[in-house]
Amino acid sequence: MNKINLSERALHAPASAIRKLVPFADKAKKRGLNVYHVNIGQPDLPTPEKIMNFIRSYPASTLEYAPSSGMSETVSAWAVFYKNKGASFSEEDIIVTAGGSEALSFAFFSVADPGDEIIVFEPFYTSYAIIAAMADINLKAITTRVENGFHLPDYKIIEKAISKKTKAIILCNPNNPTGTLYTEREVRLIVDLALKHNLYIISDEPYQEIVFDGLSLLPFSSFKKLLPQLIVTDSVSKRFNSCGARVGCLASKNKQIISASLKFAQARLSVATVDQLAVVPLLKNHSQYVGQVRKTYQSRRDTVIAELKKIPGVSLTPPQGAFYLIPELPINDSDKFAQFLLEKFQDKKETVMVAPATGFYKTAGLGKKEIRIAYVLNEKKLVRAVELLNLALKQYNH
Ligand SMILES: Cc1ncc(COP(=O)(O)O)c(C=O)c1O
Predict the structure, then answer these.
(1) Using CA positions, which residue lies closest to atom 14 of ligand 1?
(2) Which domains does the chain have, with CATH numbers?
(3) pTM above 0.90, yes or no
(4) 130 FRET partner, CA 20 to 30 A, in 20, 38, 307, 398?
């Protein structure tokens, strides 16, 4: 039999930057090392009891399919969530998805054809690139830089990147992987560009309540004129420490987007029934829970930054949201350094796993001096994780 080739898409889809070091971490663990994971955004905080108790005591005798658009209780809970935030999405504007990830896929597939472009600011969340590759969409990456806290470049620079093929701009505020909280001015700038050039905005919002220093965020949904062009992708994962629940949503006032997304949703039939129902009480009363989450991450951010500042040659701008930061380190190849941490380095049978920032850039050669730290461990562990980083850097640069 002749060899049957894979599709170009399958061959060229990028591997997840976050997961490609996993085999090295597994080997380190087999060698008996304790690995501090600051490489992935898996919060260590407990899932709310309300969610866990619901799952433990789910009474039904058959686990049925849910409606493709979501269980009515969950759709209505998302609508309450947005109402409480002052956003005007109602039940008919919402489709429940398997995490924010599926909402992103539906948004990309709804707005862009093969060869079309979506503008993104690099470094960016890696899944954007993989989802774009699945649909032969080109991501047009505009670079942001560590020196100014990864804030957006000027209007003119962004405008220059817009072509006839551009269909949307995606922005995650506050941002993964940088932790950057975009200012009102930056949000307005994106809104102005979208309105002027008739582009969709895909607003990726899983971290929206995790904002520090008493600051607040200007949501895209507050711009009435923008609403027909706005697609929100959202999730319970981070705000409720429920990544494994796999419940998110796509919200849009644009009826065509909702009906296209519903067709995609019908192909996967449904999101897990129990999980959808379990998160309802949290969605209906999110502010009660997220206040503590925000406080915890702000304190962790302060700890990580204080420890990183003790390391010679490290530079960073303190981020103001989410639970990530990207420092620049005195290294020349962050992939090699991350591998070194797992393969060659140990201190008292411990090491640390980080995400090399190269995987968050589209432009080859960028991110080689940067790593992403997810501060998803308690402060004692974070102090040790940064200490390990410091010790490793001394060995690595020797
Ligand atoms: C920026 C961003 N968007 C979307 C997601 C999707 O998360 P989930 O599918 O768990 O909702 C994540 C997860 O890390 C993320 O960081």
Answers:
(1) 41
(2) 8-46+288-396 (3.90.1150.10), 50-286 (3.40.640.10)
(3) yes
(4) 38
